[in-house]
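go over whats below:
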Amino acid sequence: MKNAIKIWLAAAALMAVAGCKVDSSEERYVNIVEEAYYVYCVTGDYVLSPVLSVLDRALKVDMYVRADQYGRYELEDMYFPEYKVRLYDDKCVLADGRGEFVFDGNSILDEGSVWECTFNGVAATVSCTGPDEWDVDVDFQTTRLDAPYSLNTMEMHVALADSCGYGYVYEVTVEGDYTEHTSSREGNTVVEVVFSTAEPTMAVLSRGPLFHFFNGGFDLHMDISGGMQRSEDIEVRLSPAMSGTEVTVNYMGETEFWRE
């Protein structure tokens, strides 16, 4: 079953490095709940993280813009070591086409400010809606997620909850849907996933460009057509611990636990 759809293969590799099953005392040839856990992993890493990264990088660009010359040296080493930062009157560009952040004359922290941002292929308008709160509105015509995923709709609201080391902790409320198209020996398969936060959920930058989610949860619905047929709900709940988060997944009447 997992060999039929790329979404499961990508997430299986991810799971090997990112999470481990809590209770492995019972070994089964097929653990059906793993399918649902894979969908959650893909949603977090390949759909939510790229969009949330736009806001995260924009906040760091804002710090760079507001800093003096010496402060910019420090921020460049801290937040942009892999990029060449180019600052103009109305925008900041990360060289090699990795990002562009167009200002409206205001700090992104100023209520009412609107920035047009592009980072790693994701284009979005970031609007400050209140103190340390933003809407992130994706430009779906321009945005390209990693193949084979395509983002169809998304509404994301983010609040700055805390700071952690060199980064931030965000409170995320989001809903939307994405599609995966893939081919296999069983035929062409289309996977549609609808997702939403069950409650505001915390996120912190984890490894590379990926975010780790905790203290909240997601409700997802998966529809598979083509080589396989499936229409199922997935319930994911995340414990409050930022490290060693317990991920509880309920799927097709069964419940399993993972730690991340």
User: Anything to note?
Assistant: DSSP finds three helices and 16 strands in the chain.
